[in-house]
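Listing S7. Sequence submitted for prediction.
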Amino acid sequence: MGVNELEYKDQQPFYMVLVDDGTDRYAAQENLVPDGAMAPIDHPAVGRYFESFHGSYYLPNEQKFQEYPDDNVIRETASFAMETNMIKML
């Protein structure tokens, strides 16, 4: 589907997503649907972006925290969870 065929066209965020088949693709926000599995994905690029999986979300790796320092609250929350063995390390 082309961008101009989407309801919100190019006036929405587009995300690079890691697909179950091992590929990376860009997807419009309106096309994203949670799969509900709440399980880690098996994709060769996961470690490029994330360091651990916590039940329903991934914790970004150090490089991503350096790129997005305003997201440090996520790291602080996850640090507590790691100390209490609540996070599965990749």
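Caption to Listing S7: primary sequence and predicted structure tokens for the chain studied. Residues 72-83 form the longest helix (12 residues). Helices lie at 46-49, 62-67, 72-83.
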